[in-house]
Amino acid sequence: MLFCKFRRTVFLLEPKVFNWQKYLLLRVENINMGDIAFTKTFVQHYAFIMKTLKKSHESDTMSNRIVHISVQLFSNEELARQVTEECQLLDIMVTVLLYMMESCLIKSELQDEENSLHVVVNCGEALLKNNTYWPLVSDFINILSHQSVAKKFLEDHGLLVTWMNFVSFFQGMNLNKRELNEHVEFESQTYYAAFAAELEACAQPMWGLLSHCKVRETQEYTRNVVRYCLEALQDWFDAINFVDEPAPNQVTFHLPLHRYFAMFLSKAVKCQELDLDTILPDQEMLMKLMIHPLQIQASLSEIHSNMWVRNGLQIKGQAMTYVQSHFCNSMIDPDIYLLQVCASRLDPDYFISSVFERFKVVDLLTMASQHQNTVLDSEHERSMLEGALTFLVLLLSLRLHLGMTDDEILRAEMVAQLCMNDRTHSSLLDLIPENPNPKSGIIPGSLSFESVLSAVADFKAPVFEPGGSMQQGMYTPKAEVWDKEFDPVMVILRTVYRRDVQSAMDRYTAFLKQSGKFPGNPWPPYKKRTPLHPSYKGLIKLLHCKTLHIVLFTLLYKILMDHQNLSEHVLCMVLYLIELGLENSPEQESDEEESAGGQERCHDSWFPGSNLVSNMRHFINYVRVRVPETAPEVKREPPASTSSDGLASSQSSRRKSLQRENSGTAQVFSLVAERRKKFQEIINRNTSEANQVVRPKTSMKWSAPGATPQLTTAILEVKESILSLLIKLHHKLSGKQNSYYPPWLDDVDVLIHPEIPRYSHGDGMTAVERILLKAAVQSRLNKRIIEEICRKVTPPVPPKKISSAEKKTLDKEERRQKARERQQKLLAEFASRQKSFMETAMDVESPDVDIAMEVATSEQHVSEAIYDCVICGQSGPSTEDRPTGLVVLLQASSVLGQCRNSTEPKRLPTTEEEQIYPWDTCAALHDVRLSTLQRYFKDSSCLQAVSIGWEGGVYVQTCGHTLHIDCHKSYMESLRNDQVLQGFSVDKGEFTCPLCRQFANSVLPCYPGNNVERSVWQSHSNKCMQDLVQEVEDLQEQLGTFPVSISSETNLSKEMESVMKDIKSTTQKKYTDYSKSPGSPDNDFLFMYSVARTNLELELVHRGGNLCSGGASTAGKRSCLNQLFHVLAMHMRLYSIDSAYNPWRKLTQPMQDKNSELVSEELPEVPVLYRDVSSLLLIQILTMPQPLHKEHFTCIIKVLFTLLYTQALAAISVKCGAEDRLAWKEAGALKKNTSSGEKSWEVLLGHVISELSKGKIYEEGDTEELAVVNPDSVERDLQQFCLPFLRITSLLQHHLFGVDLPSCQEEEEFTVLASCLGLLPSFQSAHQFTSASCLDWPVPAFDMISQWCSELASFADRHPDQVKALLIQEPKWDLPRLLQLPENYNTIFQYYHRKTCSVCTKVPKDPAVCLVCGTFVCLKGLCCKQQSYCECVLHSQNCGAGTGIFLLINASVIIIIRGHRFCLWGSVYLDAHGEEDRDLRRGKPLYICKERYKVLEQQWVSHTFDHINKRWGPHYNGL
Question: Which of 234, 93, 69, 223 minimizes the C-alpha distance to 154?
């Protein structure tokens, strides 16, 4: 019944794909997945699923649903085996895949474009671009994971043939043809589909099959695969009409058949103990097999040499993908392994010549100084030669498949990645080739991975750079890894970007310098290789063949002669190959056998044999070269001795016949003989390798345009051996004559123990010394010849003289290289200077650094300050006509308002029970106090009794640089016209400092003159206190009179007015308008002095809440408070205070008419004891004529301190119990008449209690009274009450008069500050100090106290319930803190990611939480949008006056909102390896990083978000 229903549903609803699929899914929910009947039905309709997938418009959705079913069916091994046996599941799957791909086949254009019979998949088809085949391939990989099913597949010859046919569809796909004339019009992106198809459809099934071929018993499986793979390859060669030469200017990166063959060979040798020769094809097939992988290696070099630049960026993308970590083990590694296998079995001379021919550098390998390359432009020759030599080094050095164990491979991969750059744990997991692994099956992240990582790397915890950017937890190589395991060959193999090789070398250089192992610029170190597996011993023959030795000799000679297009990298690779040859000698030569001398028996003018050890000492006298007629060699006279010339010609004729003999007898196949003839014919006739090559017909397409070069024959006198060339190179590299001295002449032990540490690291000279030592160790003859060469006085190689004609023909690439080096040097020098400048002048996080600022701090006797304009560069004073200004950033701040009366920070709520109430914050309590005062007292008086700015206050900061105001206006105009995308809004006045690029939005004018009374103030003034009080009063009555220069309209006054508007517009109107009558001038008066208060309070916060550390201002000399005070003072003096209400008189004179207020119907003025003393201080200072005299400043402080002290006594008195009050009252009365009564807190406290007792002050609230028992606690409370005022006053004095702040212990702070302010001029530490000794009453103390207390008594009669609340102030606030976060991020995520929003009552799509107050908000939620503002932006204005710090719950990152801009700050939650997990993609457990959170908090408190974070963008109110 089930079958019928299933079939009926499927076929009836065929057009409606979704319906049958939905039906199938519904049925699956009620079916046991082990039900064989359902599985068989699914398999029978497998072809229909494929058809439906191809037709579907939503293949992604459909694929996911199909796999959802099939993965459950085919993951059951027993079920998969049964269906395979009964329903031919494997046949169905392979046939369905084959049929699916057949629908998108096109004719292959590889090799023979016209006559090719091969077909490949079209990578531009939707089937491949959309990965439509993915669910079917996924199922196939899934069932191949079961051993029983894979065994059946590997045993079925028919299935293997079908599968190889399927794989051949991908062989040669996505063919690239080099554009030679014009840039390609359209850059195809089909390579994405091609690489994905090969990896998923070919490579992954291959790894699945290989996982079952691990033991000897499975040899037959490997033989089967190799057999049918070779058959498919032969068919492919026949189909594309391939003989021996690849078509020029073509490359495909896709050779899955080659890679199948290579990987099964590797597995056969490594795991199954198969004899390699029994499964290898004949030599002719091997020669064919090597051509296309070799073509890919040559093309890689061409692409990196910019020869394919007209094909666009996509060709570079292919080259990078080919070696990228996810593809390398399925692409480049099998290709290089296959080439290694071919090289080990083919004639070495044929292979080496093939390499240089494929890399198109055969013509370059001539000993003549000039040559003509018919297939390569001269600008590409150097990089292609480097590519060819580097490839040979890779081929001969790599042991990934040739003998390395699994652990060694993993370790080598890890070391290579770590040497390029420090890596995070997750990036290492990603960069190391992942499972299925061609080598081992080691799973990254497993125990083996972690143990190797801990063995080779040290963990660096997350750190912060000076600029503020955050580093994640990194792994860096251990010192011993750099010392012994750094392998540049492995680094070259694994680099996607060429710059990573240089990065590894730079890091290696830094290690050597730091450890003192080598001070100069080292060369890549030589690393000993793992021994070769016996099956691959033939690879060593490449190092011991004449062709390679001739190439090495020629290149050494050319480098010594300074020929063009030869670089240090070429020399490095040449020496590396020589050293590889010495390390891998076939056998120890017999010195006795050759003692008669090799030259006499040598019939070959190049080398006598194939052993590098003996060939190194062989001297070559003359070389006949074919050169252009213009070459200097042509003009050279022949040698004087005719016999030498005759010898050369007779040798030449002998060599011709000998070479013919050799070519007839030594080679097996004519193809090999032909290639050897092509490459070696010229070499063996003393004509140096290249110029007589007879190219095949196909290579005519490579020829450069122009006539065939006219070549002529010349004879070069060489008389050098490889050993002599090496010694002369040592002299050349050192720049000294006879610089090389054989070390064994002083210490014979070096021959016995040649592994000397000093040879491990070094430059070219070290490499030469190491090679010569190894050559001497291996042969006594070599040792003797080296000594003979060194005994001869060898003149140093003269520097090459470049004539004017030669200068014109100097290689373009050489000039470019030098230009690049100069540019790099300049950039490095500039970066170094910039870094130095940043560290000294821009480190916003280092308040202790004293930063030299352009605002010149003049000598004490100089009256005018000199400023440097950072735009025009002129220096001079600020004048009224051309004022200078400080670059400043104005920003609204609510940081002060977040202070709480608690040392423990509030926690972020993570349960419903936890809530945060903002009623105990500094801002909330100040708001309550102001509203209470406004309820009972006159509004204008209230607005002078407090300060605002705890919320929405304006903070002013500067980078310290100055500029002319007119220069700034020109600069802003240029920014407006600049079309470059900027991270700030010029229309809002925003800009970056022209010098240091710090963010700013205004310019604060500098007042002409020095503005600061810098003379050292004497401890005693000649004037008495009463005179100073009178002078202050007289000066305040002159408020309306201004200097002529200010009252007249000058540029300075205009700019001061302009910056005042900027300051007002910085914050929102609700934070500036506290008056009951809107627009009242009292608002402006309150706002202006509160700006000064805000900046002083914030500086105090930045100093840690006290002044114990002393020293200069927080940011060194970058403070702008002095200039700010002048701007504020100028505007505050525009407001005159009625003399009847002037607080100064109330503080210094007894009032006569005490009852006048009672008869008035208006609300009374705020009693003096309710007024904020710090606010009174700023009102007095800023309304005095400037500059202010120090003696007047001290007078004001002394008067205000008497009021503050009385407030402290009154606050203590209301906290006492009734009995204590009575006791203090009586104790004070007894001492009242003593001489020191006015300076005794006991007397004064008794008098305050006595006066306040006259009203109803002590009658209410007795239940909450606190007992003050001992005198010590009273003294401590008095000092704590007064300290905030002393700190603010000391900072003000420091900025106005330049008085340094002394450092002190915390318990001494009151005493030191009082002394610094002049309140305690005669203080002596010997006697017992009391705070009352700082009092200096201008009039009798008891009269003033009585007057002040009477105001409270009269208020208490009317409102007894409010007297105490207003009298008890909170003097001690803790520093502002962000909310404390839980240790584990999961705690936050679980509570908030499903929490409903309190505004819209929905679960937000992007929930966020404010880290300042804990409010839960909807990020970008339109549901909570109000007046075009989304909730986060609105909350940032309400909570932080425009600054918001939000934790995004679903992403674990912090977002900062600053005004109209926002930026992603980073994450404060990291995993166990110190990494972020943005968007929670990796799903790792995350833990709080306290250091990062501290930095976030510090940036918030110091208002440096704008300076430190660079990636800002506009949010358009949409967050």
Answer: 223
Query: Token pair for residue 1356?
Result: 């208490």
Q: Per DSSP, what are the bridge partners of residue 470?
A: 464
Amino acid in the structure at residue 1188: L
Q: In terms of C-beta density within 10 A (0-12 exposed, 13-18 middle, 19 or more buried), how is residue 688 classed?
A: buried
Q: From CA 1509, how far away is CA 1463, in angstroms rounded?
A: 8
Identity of the amino acid at 1086: L
The answer on pLDDT for 407 being more than 80 is yes
3-state secondary structure of 1436: helix
Cβ atoms of 1385 and 1489 within 8 Å: the answer is no
Q: Let me know: does 1097 contact 1121? Beta carbons within 8 Å.
A: no
> Do the Cβ atoms of 102 and 34 come closer than 8 Å?
no
Nearest Cα to Cα of residue 618 among 600, 631, 644, 636: 600
For residue 189, the one-letter residue type is Q
HSE (CB half, 13 Å, CA atoms) of 977? 6
Please check whether residue 346 is in contact with residue 666, taking contact to mean a CB–CB distance below 8 angstroms. no
Q: Tell me, what amino acid is at 620? A: I
Distance, in Å, from the CA atom of 891 to the CA atom of 957, rounded to the nearest integer, reads 9
Residue 174 and residue 253 in contact, taking contact as beta carbons nearer than 8 Å: yes
Is the confidence at residue 1407, as pLDDT, over 80? Answer: yes
What separation, in Å, do the N-terminal and C-terminal C-alpha atoms of the chain show?
Answer: 57
Cα 625 from chain centre: 54
The 3-class secondary structure across 1353-1396, one letter per residue, is HHHHHHCCCCHHHHHCCCCCCCCCCCCECCCEHHHHHHHHCCCC
* Own/partner pairs, 42-45, CB within 8 angstroms, 24+ separation: 42/69, 42/70, 42/73, 43/83, 43/87, 43/89, 43/92, 44/87, 45/6, 45/7, 45/10
Q: Tokens at residue 99, please?
A: 């049929």
* φ, ψ at 250 (rounded to 5°): -130, 145
Nearest to 1383 by CA among 1500, 1496, 1499, 1472: 1472
Mean pLDDT is highest, among 816-825, 1113-1122, 1406-1415, for 1406-1415
- How many whole angstroms from its chain centre is CA 768? 39
**Global pTM value:** 0.77
Residues 6+ apart with CB under 8 A from 866: 856, 858, 875, 876, 877
CA distance 182 to 424: 43
DSSP for 959-1006, please give it: EEEEEEHHHHHHHHHHHHH--S--SS-GGGT-EE-TTT--EE-EEEEP
List the 1443-1448 sheet strands across, edge first.
1416-1418, 1407-1410, 1443-1448, 1453-1458, 1461-1466, 1513-1514
Q: Assign 1212 to helix, strand or coil.
A: helix
Enter the tokens of residue 78.
């027993």
* 831, amino acid identity: A
Q: Using the 8-state DSSP alphabet, how is residue 687 labeled?
A: I
206 contacts 257 by C-beta, under 8 angstroms: no
For residue 1212, pLDDT over 80 is answered with: yes
Rg (CA), the chain: 44
Q: What is the mean pLDDT of the chain?
A: 79
**CA neighbours closer than 13 Å in the CB half-sphere of residue 625:** 26
pLDDT digits (tens, 9 = 90+) for 581-610: 998 887 654 443 443 333 333 334 588 888
Rounded CA gap, 1187 and 863, in Å?
12
> Measured on CA atoms in the order 1259, 1261, 1262, 1267, is the torsion positive or negative?
negative
Residue appearing with tokens 């079958």: 3
Report the distance separating Cα 436 and Cα 439, nearest Å. 9
Q: What confidence category does residue 1153 fall into, taking pLDDT thresholds of 50, 70 and 90? A: low
User: In whole angstroms, how far apart are CA 1301 and each of 1114, 1116, 1284, 1445?
Assistant: 12, 13, 15, 34
Question: Cα–Cα distance between 1189 and 886 in angstroms, integer?
Answer: 25
Between helices 348-358 and 546-560, what is the axis angle to 10°? 50
- Which of the four pLDDT bands, split at 50, 70 and 90, describes residue 854? very low
